[in-house]
Design goal:
The protein has a 21-stranded antiparallel beta sheet. The chain is built from 2 helices and 21 strands. By secondary structure, the chain is mostly beta strands. The longest helix is centred in the first third of the chain and has 8 residues.
Length: about 325
């Protein structure tokens, strides 16, 4: 056949060499595509038992991914050039597969992909991945693990040189820069659980540069928790323990500061210019919601000011709630 379509796959040439003998279909070579690129199928289908038994090898060379993705994963935004080999064996009702897949010059969910590859096996409802790698611009993601037919997953991830500015982060998360992370993804694809660690030499958080960043990260049920997010701003050292609730767009937590700059802290928290400034050795606790902001500062402030009055050094405990400061201690 020429110039047609089969299972959503366009072709200029379709041909097959096969024979059926004693209830066995032997496929010497079946080709679907054009002269240089396409899909090749070889092997056999045996009808001698209770159900068809497969022994087939499918090789795809340089084909476009879009029609394949539309057939296997409708609605998934994938593009690129696909090269792959898969060997399928076993009964039709429960086949097993071993394959290699490579994608070049494509995209996934609007993110450019220079190349991606993975080795895989499938059997009894379990997909096992090995040697997985995705390269996008200067970013590289290595992965391996398992995906079950039930939706359960167990994947190890290691990413290098992630440009946060190119990720489709929610606009309320004002985070840019280059970072690395390692972690493990478990749970299910519908309700993922992530536990990992991130590091960065320098990031920008809500317009404030932060340096020497390191933290463990945990995400489950729409809640992201960072129990020890450590960073530096100038001579100041900070440690943040916080949780973000995506459903309510709420960030709550506590920041411990040594030689911390209050102006920088307020900038990170997306608070406007405040009445208190200076160098803080102490704690800042906060509950940030779209329509309700609460902040409490406890510790020692030096070389600063309070409502325009200079401060050399003071022990204080103050709180901001409903846009008003309350002084609990100032001495």
């Amino acid at each position: 056949a020429q110039d047609g379509q089969a299972l959503g796959q366009p072709f200029t040439v379709a041909r097959a060499e096969m024979a059926f003998d004693q209830q066995v279909l032997n496929i010497r070579r079946a080709w679907l595509g054009d002269v240089a690129t396409g899909h090749q199928l070889q092997g056999s289908v045996n009808w001698q038992g209770a159900e068809p038994n497969l022994d087939l090898t499918l090789t795809s060379a340089g084909v476009r991914l879009e029609p394949v993705a539309a057939l296997l994963a409708p609605g998934t935004p994938l593009t690129g050039n696909l090269t792959q080999t898969v060997h399928v064996t076993g009964p039709l009702s429960n086949p097993a597969a071993v394959g290699k897949l490579r994608l070049t010059d494509g995209s996934a969910y609007k993110q450019l992909i220079a190349r991606a590859q993975v080795d895989y096996t499938y059997g009894n409802g379990l997909l096992q991945l090995a040697n997985g790698q995705v390269v996008s611009l200067d970013t590289r993601l290595d992965f391996a693990g398992e995906l079950a037919q039930s939706g359960a997953c167990d994947l190890t991830l290691s990413a290098q040189d992630i440009d946060l500015g190119r990720l489709l982060l929610p606009p309320e998360i004002g985070l840019t820069g280059i970072m690395q992370f390692d972690g493990r993804l478990t749970g299910t694809l519908a309700q993922p659980v992530f536990d990992g660690r991130l590091q960065a030499k320098r990031l920008n958080l809500n317009g404030q540069d932060i340096n020497d960043v390191s933290s463990s990260v945990h995400h489950r049920a729409g809640i992201t928790h960072v129990p020890a997010f450590m960073f530096q701003i100038g001579p100041g050292n900070y440690e943040l323990n916080a949780s973000y609730y995506s459903k309510d767009d709420q960030l709550i937590g506590r920041m411990a500061a040594v030689n911390g700059d209050l102006t920088s802290i307020f900038k990170i928290a997306k608070l406007q210019e405040q009445d208190v400034k200076g160098t803080l050795n102490g704690d800042v606790t906060f509950d940030l919601q779209p329509k309700n902001v609460s902040v409490a500062i406890d510790g020692n402030i030096k070389n600063g000011s309070w409502r325009g009055l200079p401060i050399q050094q003071v022990e204080l405990s103050v709180a901001l709630k409903n846009r008003r400061w309350t002084i609990n201690k100032f001495e």
